[in-house]
Design brief:
Elements lengths: L1 E6 L3 H4 L3 E9 L2 E11 L4 E11 L2 H7 L10 E10 L2 E10 L2 E9 L8 E9 L2 H7 L10 E10 L2 E10 L3 E10 L8 E8 L19 E9 L4 E10 L2 E11 L8
Antiparallel strand pairs: 1-2, 2-3, 3-4, 4-5, 5-6, 6-7, 7-8, 8-9, 9-10, 10-11, 11-12, 12-13, 13-14, 14-15
C-alpha cells in the first residue's frame, strides 16, 4: 500500500518550500517519511523524519539491483532539524550487518558551504560496497570507515578520513578544494598494508605478492589546479622517494 502527498506540486521546479508525508507498506518492508524543505534546490532548512525497516535486507537489495553489501534485519533512520540557520543531522543506519552513523550540522545538504559532519560505516564486504558505487577492485574484506570534516566556503577541512580492513590502514587528512579543479588542495596520506598487491584489480591488474608496505606522503595542488606529490614508499627492505608534478585531475595525468 502507498499513501501520501507532497506540495506544492511545482515546488521542485522553482526551488520553493515543499512539504510531504509518505507511508509505504510492501510485505514486511515499511517506509515512512514526513516533513518539509525550505529550499528544494539546495535542500536547506530541512525538517524531516525518514525511516525504512524490514526483516531481510538481502531481498530489498536484490529488488533494487544493489550488490549484497549486507544481510539481516534493518532499521534505517534519518532525522533532520533546522536550528540556528543550519540543518542538524542524525543518521542511524542499522542496515543489518552494515552499520552507518552520522551526526552534524550543515547549511544545506547539496554542496554545503558551512558546517561539520562526523560519520562512520562498517560492514562485512568492502568489494560489494565499492560495486554499489560503481567501483570494481576493492578487496573482499570486512571494513571500518571513519570521517570527520568541516565545511567552509571553497574548501572541506578533513580532520580524519580512515579506512581499516583486515590487512590495511589508510589515513587521509588536510584540505580539499571544492571547485571543479580542486584548487588549493593539500592532503596528507599515510598507508600501511601487509599486502598492497591485493589491490591490483583497482588498476585492472591481477593480484600480485609485494609484501609489507608503507606509504607516507602529501598530495597538493596550486591555484591553477595542477597537482604535485612528495612521498616515501617502503617495501620490505626497499624504499622509493617520489617528488614531482602529476598534472590536473580533470584530464589525463602528465607526471614529471
Amino acid at each position: 500500500t502507498v499513501d501520501g502527498w507532497y506540495g506544492p506540486q511545482d515546488a521542485f521546479f522553482h526551488g520553493d518550500r515543499v512539504e510531504h508525508e509518505l507511508k509505504v507498506m510492501v510485505g514486511d518492508v515499511k517506509l515512512e517519511s514526513s516533513g518539509h524543505l525550505a529550499d528544494s534546490h539546495t535542500m536547506s532548512g530541512a525538517d524531516l523524519d525518514f525511516r525504512l525497516s524490514g526483516s531481510k535486507i538481502s531481498t530489498l537489495l536484490e529488488t533494487l539491483a544493489v550488490p549484497p553489501i549486507s544481510e539481516g534485519a534493518y532499521d534505517f533512520r534519518i532525522e533532520l532539524e533546522p536550528r540556528d540557520g543550519l540543518t542538524h543531522i542524525r543518521l542511524l543506519g542499522d542496515l543489518g550487518s552494515l552499520q552507518a552513523h552520522a551526526t552534524g550540522q550543515l547549511d544545506r545538504l547539496i554542496r554545503p558551504q558551512l558546517g561539520v559532519i562526523n560519520g562512520s560505516i562498517s560492514g562485512p564486504n568492502l568489494a560489494a560496497l565499492g560495486q554499489a558505487f560503481g567501483i570494481e577492485g576493492f578487496v573482499e574484506d570486512a571494513f571500518d570507515i571513519l570521517a570527520n570534516a568541516r565545511y567552509q566556503p571553497g574548501a572541506v577541512h578533513i580532520d580524519q578520513l580512515s579506512l581499516d580492513s583486515s590487512a590495511d590502514r589508510l589515513n587521509v587528512s588536510g584540505i580539499l578544494g571544492t571547485d571543479a579543479q580542486y584548487k588549493n588542495t593539500r592532503l596528507a596520506v599515510h598507508l600501511d598494508s601487509r599486502e598492497p598487491g591485493r589491490w591490483a584489480p583497482l588498476l585492472k591488474r591481477d593480484p600480485v605478492i609485494i609484501g609489507q608496505a608503507r606509504l607516507v606522503g602529501d598530495v597538493f595542488s596550486d591555484d591553477e589546479g595542477i597537482f604535485s606529490t612528495t612521498a616515501s614508499v617502503r617495501l620490505d627492505q626497499s624504499s622509493l622517494e617520489l617528488d614531482g608534478v602529476l598534472g590536473p585531475l580533470t584530464g589525463p595525468l602528465h607526471p614529471e
